[in-house]
Amino acid sequence: MVHFGNDWDDVLQGEFDKEYYQTLRRFLAEEYRTQTIYPPMYDIFNAFKKTAYKDVKVCIIGQDPYFRPGQAHGMCFSVKKGVAIPPSLRNIYKELESDLGIPPSKDGYLEKWAEQGVLLLNTVLTVREGQPLSHKDKGWEMFTDDVMYKLNEKDTPIVFLLWGSPAKKKAEIITSPIHLKLTAPHPSPMSASYGFFGCRHFSKANAFLIEKGLSPVDWNLND
Description:
Blueprint: H1 8-11, H2 19-34, E1 37-38, H3 46-50, E2 58-61, H4 87-100, H5 111-115, E3 118-121, E4 127-128, H6 140-152, E5 159-163, H7 165-168, E6 180-184, H8 201-211
Parallel strand pairs: 2-3, 2-5, 5-6
Antiparallel strand pairs: 1-4
């Protein structure tokens, strides 16, 4: 049984008993037994463990986890300290510097964002080593859709940062007028130049939060 240790346990109660998730669980059990899968099994739900439902004020949505060794640890775009910063995250740091003048962090660990209410969510939560999108259409999209429905029901405003085509598909779920949806191409080197650079999502998110009477996110990861 999945246990988050916060209010997500109540919010997602019953989700893991649904038929689609049981099918997904059997698929994952076989994948972890026979393949190299990222993130490690016990890291899959770190985004939820780090950011309680009641605290979510920004939700960054990516695609699927990093597929190279030592990178993915259950929070989209984040890597642990000591791991080389992946190209997508380098581009996020470039946009952050351009937007808010914040110099790039020396590492790629985004826990400080998560602790401030930034839910770091992918549309698909696992991947085979070296095979991006290999766990697409196995059930994770149904799970993350349900997470989005739950977030949409929240009675406090959330900024949704939807980066890349899979993330943009989630936009139609967010129907409550109290929330803000911002979309952009994925920050990967293949697409960042087509509209991720210059999107200014970080300053726009903070401006919205301040307007709604919420504290802005301190995006600065430097100590």
